[in-house]
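Standup notes
- HV: blocked on the assembly model, inputs below
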Amino acid sequence: MINLFQILIEGSLVGLVYGLVAISFVVIYRASRIINLAQGEVLVFGALFLWTFTLGAQAAGYPLPLPVGIALTVLGCVGFGLVLERFVFRPLIGQSAFAIFMASVALLILLRGVAQFVWSAETRPAPTILPEGALQVGPFLINTGLLIGGIFTLALMVALQLFFTRSRHGLRLAAVAEDHSTALSLGISVRQAIAVAWILGAVVATFAAMVLLSGRIISLEVAHIGFKALPVALLGGLESIRGAPLAGVMIGVGEALAIAYLDPLTNGAASGILPYVVMIAVLLVRPQGLFGWKKIERL
Amino acid sequence: MLPTGIHFGTYAGEAKILKTRRAGLWAAALVAGLIALPLASGPYLLGVMTHMFITLMAVYGLYVTVGMAGQINIAQSAFVGIGAFTAAKLSGYGLPVWVIVPAAALVTGAISVLFALPAARVKGFYLALTTLAAQVMFPIVILALPMDWLGGLVGLSVEPVRLGGLTLTTPLHYYYFTLVLAAVLTVAAFNLQRSRFGRSLMAVRDNDVVAEVMGIPVFRTKILAFFAGSLFAGVAGACTAYVLQFVTVSSFTLFASVWYLGMLIVGGAHSALGAVLGVVFITLVQEGLHGVANKVVQAGAATSGGMLFALTSIALGGCILIALIFEPRGLAHRWHVLRTAFQLWPFPRS
Amino acid sequence: MHTPSAPAKDVLSADRLCLRFGAVEALKSVSLTVREREIHAVIGPNGAGKSSLLNCLSGFYKPQSGAVRFNGADISALVPHKRAGLGISRTFQGIQTYPSMTARENILTGYHLRMKTGLFSALLYWGRVRAEEEAFARRAEEIIDFLELEERRHEIVGDMSYGLRKRVDLGRALALDPKILIMDEPMAGMSAEEKGDLARFILDIRDGLGIPVVLVEHDMEVVMDISDRITVIDFGQVIACGTPAEIRTNDAVIAAYLGGAQQ
Amino acid sequence: MGLSLSNVDVVYGGVIQVLRSTNLEVPDGQMVVLLGSNGAGKTTTLRAISGLLHADLGEVTAGRILFDGEDITNGDPATIFRKGIVQVLEGRKVLEHLTVEQNLMVGAHARSDHRAVKTDLERIFGYFPRLPALLRRTAGYLSGGEMQMLLIGRALMARPKLLILDEPSMGLAPILVEQLFEIIGRIKREEGLTVLLVEQNARAAIAQCDYGYVMDGGRIVLHGSREQLENNQDVQEFYLGFSGAEERTSFRDIKHYRRRKRWLG
Amino acid sequence: KDYVISASADYSGPFADVMPNAMAGINAVADWWNKAVGDKLGVKAQIKIYDMRYDAAVVAKTWPAILSADAPIAHLGFGTPDLVTLMKRLPNDKVPMIMGTAMVGLVWAPDGWHYSIRPTYSHEFAGLFADIQEKSGKKLRIGAISTQNQAGFVDQVNGIKKLAETYPDRFEVVDVQWAETSPVSLSSNLRALSSAGAEILLIGGTTAQVIAAAKAMEELGLSIPIVTSTHNGLYEVAKGIDLAKLNGSYAAFSFAPPARADLPLRDVFEANKKDGSWGLITAQAAAQALLALRMLEKAVAKVGADEVDGEAMRAALLDNVFTEEELLGALPTLDFDDTAPFPIGDIKASAEIVQDGKIVPVGDGWMSVPALEKW
Ligand SMILES: Nc1ncnc2c1ncn2[C@@H]1O[C@H](COP(=O)(O)OP(=O)(O)OP(=O)(O)O)[C@@H](O)[C@H]1O
Ligand SMILES: Nc1ncnc2c1ncn2[C@@H]1O[C@H](COP(=O)(O)OP(=O)(O)OP(=O)(O)O)[C@@H](O)[C@H]1O
Ligand SMILES: CC(C)C[C@H](N)C(=O)O
Ligand SMILES: [Mg+2]
Ligand SMILES: [Mg+2]
């Protein structure tokens, strides 16, 4: 029993990390209607910015205090978002979702190349931002880093949710997420929305990188997490900030349970397949994901 | 609209793939060129071309499922893999090639139907998730099956094609083998475009709600879209198996699926011509850059090579982006516009 | 001119349809009968439930209760494409064409149910397939001719103007070889002259082909001129049903819908 | 000042020319109506003004569009919007998944006078009494006419200087059509709103307008003041539905042989 | 006379990070050999590097071109994609392929033209396990973490299962946990492994897995030594984690530990390198190239400087024994035949261990690998 609860706790904490990456997906979609397949690469970029302004700067002889490093990282993300808007997505405003989706595929290749070019493919350490070790709560052990990350994910979710649904700016972004042309006709700057989307997306992805990689290694291969988070974002609903962490927890717990109870019976196949089975089952009941916008069909 | 002077006496003439005599001549020249190519090229080019033909087949399939029917599929590479394993397995029983290739197509089609079922309810990008599931499950399932079924970890080796008395072994043989199949599938893909079946797919893509009310059985059509698309993937898979002579799960990755999709979109998802242009464009850019980079490394100019290959990624991604920004509806659309402009010059049309 | 002779029989009828969307009651026990060779108009204020009623007839909405009958048979359980197969064809409010196909392809999709070739024969495109495509291309051309779309037959519908798309929509509906034609606001977006043409089309369809027409329309001049009977719906209920002359003078209808626009 | 188009050409996709040397003027405080058959280029004209051609790969290739003396040719839609030009698109483009209320608020997104926004909302409810009941509904599920009301309301929420309406009466019940033009006329008079109107309900539109243009095949083929238009034979026949006689011909009696007579040019 | 030896590289795939060093190793050894040996024999070995992206499809496409343009006498392969795509056709193409990475059991086939300087990963692990077991004298309880859909990683575990099966009183595989290649957390897995009683942990997959396992152990207060391989070895791991936390962990392989006190190959590299730095992967690639060059030497001796071709190269490999000395101390004495794609007879392994936060070789000789049947 204790074991089961421990598995649930760990599963949810890991799930919240998936959720955090998924939020970075959703933020971009929710503000600009762009499905970004390159989100894993964006996360790697965030991680590399972080490295540059912390350990990298230190190695180069300019040690910066961690908060300053993080602030500079966020600034880096802002620049990153602006550049992407200006050179990649601005010309594609109003184009089919397909074309924009493809642009993200191109970006995937491009960003990978740029990261390799600028930082080289070498693996490097990530700064330790979250405390290591674990918290003993009664009979349970809770990973401190993941716990803080999880709490942060939930707080971020609430904040972003309020931003998108309550603020006037959020309303504008919602209009852009509906349809570029309609938003344009309402005098909403789609460019601005896209820039905001990518800045937010990059910042959230960087936060995710901090939780995910704190005290570990940064390599270009980390980008795989993007493909892990895509289904989570879809399960939560592409338009829904709050769906992402919930979906993440579902997947995380499902995976943990499968690892513990089914993998021994199936020689490891279950934990790979189960999350997808769960996701398809949920989608059959709610085709728009848990909290996504229901597709409106009228005649 | 066709320029002045081209008119059709019959509806058949209008429905032709190559509408004018000149188009026919160009096509004939292209085919002749491809047949003659081995005379003038080294095996590297042949290898690239063979690979390109196979990719083309897979992308035709994607054109049917995604381009025509609008059902997102990011598991095409898994379907190609299913075709490859089917062909490999069947070749082990000594079946002739003209049984194996159609069988690979049909088996792939049948399996794809399984993953198409959610399309009844799940729409748009969410469908990507169910196909993603197919892509993820593909290696896991093959690895979990008993070794002697599909080779598990080891993979399967493929008996070479025997045609009459001839056993195909050299790259040249497989160049012609895939060329013929690619040509057949090209005609098939263009045929779909102008037939009742193709129109029903396009109707479902454009507006599935209306299609249902206007007499098109939408669910069945979506399933058939996956089935038809996977037929092409199955043939591509069989060719892959023959050309590689050995199939393992590791050759059929999600990344390859994404690439297939990329080629289709860069070329233009709304016409079979788009599939051709996309495959040719991306293959050219990819191989060109790669070739140059390899040459530079061998020349010793960049001894360790890391930077150089990073630059090729940048250039490749950049090329695709530029193609998209320049023509978001795909190269096929741009081709169309250019041709129109050329034919109408100097008068813009109203 | 059309003169009703022997007692016309009902072709399509809706019987006490009730339709709810959550708290919204779109239809509260609406009944409607369409007779042979009749142009039957349905009018009513915005949001009254007219389109919902048509959607129930064509099967897109499933009413919570009530029945739809076609030529005497209960078709309430049939899915939309089956109903289309019986010959219930329709046009739509707003734009509902297939935007990335050409005008002629749009019309040809209407013949889907009449054509036979399937996937494998399509891949081959040989002999019978070719002959069939040609035969139907010819029939599509008749419709193109009828709707004066000749110059635009190969134009992508998504690039067309609003009014042209509505014509393509009508062409597709005609291609179903309908036994009854349901039209939702066909006149919207047409100029007076085009409305005249369209009214002529509708009368031709009825007179020439003998198919009844259900017409939802806000243009009272057209409705009063060409319809044989009118049903008025308000807040999901039928408030009147009768000939144009009767409706024109019905107080409830004037209050709810016509207002002073009707001299 | 107002709006003026001089010799504007519009080309789609680099090859399809739709507008040819269009000249059009909308003086401040006036209502101008633009008539024309399907495919004449009316919507294209409006999109050219509000800068929305880009998404359709269209472009103004020649000529100039001036608003209050400023050149807005091929401008950025957001900038043009902020100058006070607000357009109601054809095709019922509501923001489907947002509620009616949110849709209305999006209309006012660029305004900072929050209190006035509230009163404007009330005013719009006055024009369209059906709207208040729909506030919490998802806009995508409204009926056709309800959407149309919402669109016009949304445009008014922006407090435009120049309101551009593309077939506003489409799909509205007769009472509402009548009221709509009255309302627009009233706002125009009371608040000095400038209006450019494309409308197929020519009778109602011409009755309210100050000046009118007729377009065909991408060109302006006729223009004149309200009286001139009302008395013009062709306008009467093609747009008002009279065929020479005083009485309107019944739609039942339109003859088969009557084919479209095309404008010269 | 010039002979081409082609080489696969992975500059744009998962091993892009180690590639510059690996290729530097190959280039440096080739340069040295040309000067020290080739000149005397009148032959020159030319290395041609091709980027294969660690992708089977790229290999399949590029190989015919290499054949025709370069007519290589041998190919230096890198990783599983080269193996699975080329092993079936090499006998026809008559080009032997020399691998620097260890083999995986799935290519353990007789009569091949693919040979590795190393046995399978499982052999290498087995050598280390046997060493540990012998020292302790107790039965060794092994746990493993691996990735399900990576054939090579699964194969490593299968080999170890075979080991336990063959020597049931010496080894036991208590539990295998399947994880992703970049796992978020391995806490659950480690808890399961520790409750299953694992005394040593085999992680032959990725560096990220090793680090995640170390973090999880820290969290759970465990300390089980980890056994890594070369591609995720201690040097790689050290980039992301303080080595002190991994005290007692190993990397197992079968060429000379790069930090071995007396290692002639290292001196050769340092003297001839143009770029790159010495390390595990450099050592591996250098040793790989060295074997190919020694093959060329023996082939020249047999057929003459002008007549060397792929067949002669393979014959040279099979007919000769390559001594540790010839191989500059980088490899134990190697003997090949056509029953297996790796050295036969008494297979040797080597290993490194972390002691006080430093990587040191385990012992200064070679460890014997217990005999294993093909699994
Ligand atoms: N799918 C749906 N979900 C929720 N509400 C709906 C749906 N369809 C229609 N409604 C509501 O039902 C009512 C009737 O809608 P309907 O479209 O039938 O009106 P209508 O009579 O066609 O009006 P109009 O003349 O304006 O087109 C409206 O209030 C509408 O908002
Ligand atoms: N995106 C586009 N690409 C190519 N051609 C277009 C495009 N949009 C419109 N057209 C063409 O431009 C012409 C004018 O279209 P427009 O929409 O301006 O007409 P309209 O006067 O508004 O007609 P309606 O009354 O039917 O709405 C039409 O012939 C149409 O086919
Ligand atoms: C174990 C493998 C996945 C890794 C190794 N470098 C190889 O490919 O041979
Ligand atoms: Mg309606
Ligand atoms: Mg228009």
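- HV (later): unblocked. The radius of gyration of chain E is 20 Å. The mean pLDDT of chain E is 90.
- Next: hand off to the docking folks.
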